[in-house]
UniProtKB/TrEMBL annotation:
The keyword Nuclease applies. Pfam families: Exo_endo_phos. Residues 33-47 have a biased composition (Polar residues). It comes from Corallococcus aberystwythensis. The keyword rRNA processing does not apply. Residues 1-21 form the signal peptide. This is Endonuclease. The lineage of its organism: Bacteria, Pseudomonadati, Myxococcota, Myxococcia, Myxococcales. GO terms for molecular function: endonuclease activity. Residues 26-146 are annotated as: Disordered. Keywords: Endonuclease, Hydrolase, Nuclease, Signal. Residues 172-358 form the Endonuclease/exonuclease/phosphatase domain. Residues 92-131 have a biased composition (Low complexity).
Length: 407
């Protein structure tokens, strides 16, 4: 007969059996709390493997990381003219290119002064194209494998009564041939405010970089698909309303492209030769021989044998064959009888010249752009047949194309 426990002992006996059932070291089983394995703070927690800050995080695509405008593709970092390409920093004309003299880019023409890329016309401000236009990027639309196509253009294409681009004829002509780099003359548009100049540049190429000399009545300048990492002006002592505008451009590959936009005097061949002589001195003092060089613009030359052309031979190749229009004509003045306008490059760049191809048309030696004779006109849309014949249009554009190595 079993012994009956007194009522007061029964709770203690029950607790003893419960302890034996759990076993040594076991913990009581609890419900799956949201703070454990199913907790948002664990494997399924937004702070772990599925967390926006981890492997599946938009942290790889997040604007706050590698694709963040504040990091590698930020116009304010590696490609910003205000940082590594800032004329006021490592590529400042006050460094290796600074002659420290009258030809010094560190003087009144210093890229760190009013003509600095850090001003209203700074490639690091509203003119900074950011990433897609960076010569250092890998997937350029104009790159073919290990080479990059670069189309250069000389453009004194103003019309109307104001020596400006307000009427739009010259803008349409530039748009029609899609240049990568323009050496532009009489660089005026509307009020000439930073916003107005920016709008003109964006019509030539959205997000393109540019340099425009300051304080000039009819300024020279440069418009570029690729970053302008240094820029300025060298004094033209023969004239008071413009200077020689230059830019150092970061094209793909180990060499930079230096371009000089010029507008020589109509006064006389002697005056033009003096200008050429002075410019050659600036070039020799400031531009590394290992880099590419292009001089382009309105030379106002009556022939290709003028003294200034001979003088330029010290730094560039001026030999033919020369660009021509659809009918094979080379003249670039309004009457098409004189070679006013030129794109001439050094021997290093000349060896990479290729045909200029626009639509189904091929120009083996480059193009003299006269919309009056260009057919089919649809190839250079939005240009119109009448644009090159607009009132006070005194020049034709000149276009040459190069295929430079990226190595």
């Amino acid at each position: 007969m079993a012994m009956k426990l007194p009522p007061f002992l029964r709770p203690f006996v029950a607790l003893g059996f419960l302890a034996l059932a759990c076993g040594p070291g076991d913990e009581p089983i609890t419900p799956p709390d949201s703070g454990t394995s199913a907790d948002a703070g664990s494997q399924n927690d937004a702070g772990t493997t599925v967390d926006a800050g981890s492997e599946v995080d938009s942290g790889d695509n997040d604007a706050g990381t590698v694709v963040d405008a504040g990091t590698t593709v930020d116009a304010g970092t590696t490609i910003d003219a205000g940082t590594t390409v800032d004329a006021g920093t490592t590529v400042d004309a006050g460094t290796s290119t600074d002659a420290g003299s009258t030809t010094d880019a560190g003087s009144a023409t210093d890229a760190g002064s009013t003509t600095d890329a850090g001003s209203a016309t700074d490639a690091g401000s509203s003119t900074d194209g950011g990433s897609s236009t960076d010569g250092g990027s890998a997937g350029e639309s104009d790159s073919d494998g290990g080479y990059t196509q670069i189309r250069l253009m000389a453009a004194n294409l103003t019309s109307g009564n104001g020596q400006d681009y307000d009427p739009g004829h010259g803008i349409r002509l530039m748009q029609g041939v899609k240049p990568d780099v323009v050496m532009i003359q009489e660089f005026n548009y509307k009020s000439d405010s930073a916003a107005d100049i920016r709008s003109l540049v964006d019509m030539v190429g959205p997000g393109f970089y540019y340099y425009r000399e300051s304080g000039a009545q009819i300024p020279n300048g440069v418009i570029s698909r690729y970053p302008i990492i240094e820029s300025g002006e060298w004094e033209d002592t023969q004239v008071s309303n413009r200077d020689f505008a230059w830019a150092r451009i970061d094209i793909p590959g180990p060499r930079d492209l230096w371009v000089v936009s010029v507008h020589l005097l109509t006064k006389s061949s002697g005056a033009r030769n003096t200008e050429a002589t002075n410019l050659v001195k600036f070039i020799k003092a400031n531009i590394p021989e290992a880099d590419y060089l292009a001089i382009g613009g309105d030379f106002n030359t009556d022939s290709r044998t003028e003294a200034c052309i001979t003088t330029f031979k010290q730094v560039v190749d001026t030999s033919g064959p020369h660009p021509a229009d659809k009918n094979g004509k080379e003249g670039t003045n309004a009457a098409r009888g004189k070679p006013y306008d030129h794109v001439i490059v050094d021997a290093d760049l000349r060896k990479y010249q290729v045909s200029t191809v626009i639509g189904a048309s091929t120009f083996a030696n480059g193009l003299v752009l006269d919309s009056r004779v260009y057919t089919p006109i649809s190839e250079i849309y939005p240009a119109m047949n009448s644009d090159s014949g607009a009132a006070s249009m005194q020049h034709m554009g000149v276009v040459k194309t190069y295929l430079t190595p990226n190595f």
